[in-house]
Amino acid sequence: EKDCTDAFYAFHSEDALRKLKKMRSQPATEPREEISIAFEKFRKELERDGWFKRNWFLDFAHSIFPSVFCMIVGFYLALATSYHFFATILIGVGMQQGGWIGHDYAHGRGAVSSVLASGLSALINGFSMDWWNNKHNTHHTFPNRKEVDSDIHNEPILHLWFPTKGQDVWWRKYQHVFYPIAYSFLFASWRLQSIQYILMSKNWKERALIATNYMMLAFLPWYVAIGSILLSGLLVAFVVTANHQTEEILEKDDKYNFIVDQFRTTRGVACPDPITEFLFGGMQYQMEHHLFPIMPRYHYPAVRPLVTKFAEENGMQHHISGMVEIFKMNYDVMKKYSQEI
């Protein structure tokens, strides 16, 4: 049994909390840990100061417009001109940004966020939000925990720890060479898993939206469609892997605390310029996002110093690295676990 109080508050809206208070309950068998009490106070301060409120103009300008713009211009270049290389780049970036949109609004609360998450994710990337939520919320709750967080289980393709002798594969010794190629298939893998999920589900609305995405792709030259999917997967994979797989990997039965685990397993990135700030899609503020997943991402830069202060006051480290450093750390992990056992 684990205390999921902090995780529950992290993922749920005020409406959900009001409903919870109306349900039957019983006293906790153990007192809450001091770090959890301190974090609850910290979170309430942020709520009081308005950091969880959305500004829909900023949402449109910061998240929705860039993705839609790249997709529209990319499709125009692919269908009406010979600039197919630039079309592939723009559609790939549009898909990448569409991934961040789905991610943001899947965490968001309310009817508008729900419609944007499921609608845009399916139309732009062919992703099932029902599938994604099941997978991703587990990652948030138990980051880097073996046998629970599927994001760290990429074996037998890539290894983040040494396998047992009977489970080893010959290509592991080359993983530090080919891992960028494997990364590029991330969105293709998510598309496949989404198809597998919706074939078993009864969500016909999601099925229709995902089918529309594939009809849109069918109008593109095949190499533009495939190139865009591979590029978007590569861009996202380099971001999301560097934030976690450079950090501690937890055993399934290790002591659990939602707050402590986030600091043990997560690293932020200091982007050097507006372009990389844009491409990282808010995931450079990975710690802020993991602690406050329903907070709009455009608030994360201002909240980062507050998170650092909270960590220092409670004896934890808020890990932040430069972009070159964190990519080097990621390569070192790939290299380390390519060695002979």
Explain what you see.
The protein contains 16 helices and two strands. By secondary structure, the protein is an all-alpha fold. The protein has helices at 5-11, 14-22, 34-48, 56-80, 84-107, 111-125, 129-141, 175-183, 186-200, 204-218, 222-242, 258-265, 274-279, 286-291, 300-313, 323-336, and strands at residues 268-270, 320-322. Strands 1-2 form a two-stranded parallel ribbon. The model has no long low-confidence stretch (mean pLDDT 93).
Radius of gyration: 21 Å
Fraction in beta strands: under 5%
Mean pLDDT: 93
Secondary-structure-derived class: mainly alpha
List the secondary-structure elements in sequence, H or E: HHHHHHHHHHHHEHHHEH
What is the number of E strands?
A: 2
Question: How are the strands of the biggest sheet laid out side by side?
Answer: 1-2
Query: Which sheet architecture does the biggest sheet show?
Result: 2 strands, parallel
Q: Which overall shape is indicated by the principal axes computed on the Cα atoms?
A: globular
Q: What level of helicity do the residues show?
A: 55-70%
Q: What's the total helix number?
A: 16
Low-confidence stretches: none
Termini separation:
35 Å
Give the topology.
Blueprint: H1 5-11, H2 14-22, H3 34-48, H4 56-80, H5 84-107, H6 111-125, H7 129-141, H8 175-183, H9 186-200, H10 204-218, H11 222-242, H12 258-265, E1 268-270, H13 274-279, H14 286-291, H15 300-313, E2 320-322, H16 323-336
Parallel strand pairs: 1-2
Helix pairs in contact: 4-5, 5-6, 5-11, 6-10, 7-9, 8-11, 8-16
